[in-house]
Amino acid sequence: MVKLLMSVALIICCFAFPLGAQQVRIQSVQSSENITYQYYYDLLQLILTQTADDYGSADIVVINTPLSQSRGFSMLKADLLDVFWAGTTVERERKFHAIKIPLVGGLLGARVPVIVRDRFAEFEAINTPRQLQQLVACQGAQWPDSDILEYNGYRVERVITFQLIYSMLKQQRCDYFPRGLNEAYAEVNTKGNESLMVYDKLILHYPLPMYFFVSNDHPRLAQRITQGLEALITTGQLHVFIEQHETTRDMFPLSKYNNSRIFDLANPLLPPQTPFQNQDLWIDLPHPTKNAAALVE
């Protein structure tokens, strides 16, 4: 009888007091210049908070090991991370659960050159892709962008770690760093980057959505993030979040790119299921060729 009462008491205790919050493990910031890391952290936190009534509380846990994209996906597969954000590819969507809602409206694929200020006049004189193709872009060794640039005839210096890229640019070991509109301004405004500038009169444009990726072994977490993002899209909150977050707000208003020279690139890595048909997911640049799907060969 005593054992029975103890068992009943234990059951009542478990139902009366909720278990600890779910832990959601994510990557750490790659360097002090990787300012837009905070954007994805804050967005994920917003999603977890707004879905708490349906899924329970959740705490973000940062795994304090700087990760390359390859290593990050390996840790996701090994169940050492729960969520990883990155630009999508066919291979990544084949191996992992991609939540197909672009986290910055697709603007990751609008790349502006970050350059040394002293070279402003040189970039002012660039009017054709062929001219830019003579220069060398620093880019992440494992980023889809490197493959996309090379596929389109651009010269790329692949750099293993993010923190080295800005150092190499300042030393002029490369000519420019093509950075997403959502990334460039906040990073250049970081202390120590006073010699750099965002040259936004020139834009390399290709379709490359940034997604949250989740292991295929965690369908409930994927469902939770999907539900949260869909709610933010439906209410318009995601676009407001993009326009107002401290790391992305400086790329607005988009009208300032009306006179920018835009070079369109094809993305051979883009999955054919990319949801271009849902216009609510995308933020368009002022551009005469707005159909991103038409850029894929």
From TrEMBL:
Key words of the record: Signal
Signal peptide: 1-21
Domain of life: Bacteria
Name of the protein: Uncharacterized protein
Organism of this sequence: Shewanella frigidimarina (strain NCIMB 400)
